[in-house]
Amino acid sequence: MAELASHGRAWIELSMDNLRHNVEALRALLPPGCELMPAVKANAYGHGAVPIARALNEMGVQAFCVAAASEGVALRENGIQGEILILGYTCPENFALLPQYDLTQAVVDYDYAKLLNAFGQRVKAHIAVDTGMHRLGERYAHFDRILAMLQMEHLDVTGIFTHLSASDSESPEDRAFTAGQAAAWRGLISRLGRYGYAPRAHILSSYGLLNYPEYGGAYARVGIALYGVLSERADLARCPVELRPVLSVHARVALVRTLFPGESVGYGLAYRAAQRRRIAILTIGYADGLPRSLSCGRGSVLLHGREAPIIGRICMDQTLIDVTDIPDVQSGDDAVVIGQSGEREISAYTLAEAAGTITNEILSRLGARLSRSEEPAARIASLQ
Ligand SMILES: *Cc1c(COP(=O)(O)O)cnc(C)c1O
Q1: What domain count does the chain have?
Q2: How many CB atoms lie within 10 A of CB 7?
Q3: What is the model's pTM?
Q4: Atom of ligand 1 at shortest distance to CA of 225?
C-alpha cells in the first residue's frame, strides 16, 4: 500500500525542540523530590499522545497521566514506558485492562475502591482526594475511609492526589481558597504518615507548579504548560518561565477561484461578494477542530506571511478564505491556522479569544484526521 503523505491535506507539525525547552524550563521549577508526570490525555491536548509521550520518554520522563483507560492502552501498545495513571473513571467491564497493560487507576471515591478491590486482581492505584473541587475524589475529612482504601487487599496503593480548583486565579478569595485546599491536603498527608502510610502524594498541575510550587509533592501533573501555552494570554504576565508552543496547524489550498459581484459562497449564502474577489478553499474544517464560531470574518489564517480572513461559514471539512490582497496564491499552498508564516503569527490564544474559549479546548479538539509529525528541520531553521 502506498503511504499517505504526512503533509497531504491538513496537518500538525510538532517542534520537539520546543517540547524539550518546556520540559527543561518546568523541571527547573520543580520542588525538591518532585518529578514531571505530563498529562497526555485527549491525545496530548491534540498534539498526538504517542509522538509526544515517546519524545518525553527519551527526555527521561517516567510517569504520565491520561483521562481514560483507552488512552493508557494506546500508549502501552506503542511502547511507552513508565507509570501511566488514569485520572478518570474506568468502568468495571474494563478493569481487566489495568493489570494487563500495567496501568494505575485513580480511585474516585470509597465506593469505587470497594468495586475495584472486588475485581480480585492486584491493581495499582492512586487515591483521588477531594479537598474542595468536589469533582472526583473521596472527601479529605473521611479519614477512616481513606485509611480503609489503603488497606484493601487487592489494591496496590502507590499514590494519592488532589486537584486545585482555582490555582490559576490571582484574586485574594481564590488564593485563600487554594491555601485552604493545601492546608487540608497537608493535614491529611501528615495524619496518614502518623499511621505509617506514605504513598506518593501529588497536588500540582500546570498552574499549581507555576503559582504554588511550595506545595511540593512527588509529581507535577503538567499539561497545558508543557505544550508551551497557558490557558489564557493574560496569564503570561506572571508566568515565571518562557514557554514555547509545540505545535503548528496547517492546511492546503485546494483551489483558488474568482467570485463575481453579487455571487455568494458556502452554506446559507452567508458571504456575498460586493465586488470581484479572489477566494481560496482550504482543506480543513470544524471536524478538524477549527471552531465553526470563527466563521464570517471572526477568524483568519496566514498565507505567504499575510493574513486572509475566513469568509462565509466554516464547513465540516473545508474553509473559505479571501485572498484578493495576497498575490500568487495557488492550489497546494500551505495555509497556517495556528503558527507562524513569515513575520506573522496566529497563536492558540488568538484562536481561543476569537472563539470565546481557552487554549486547552482549542488544542484538545484538534481532530483525528490531522496527521501529526515532527517539524522538518528546514522549517525550524527558517524561523530562527
Ligand atoms: C487535566 C488534569 C491535569 C493537567 O492540567 P493542566 O492544567 O493542563 O496542567 C492535572 N490533574 C488533573 C486531575 C487533571 O484532570
Answers
A1: 2
A2: 14
A3: 0.96
A4: 9
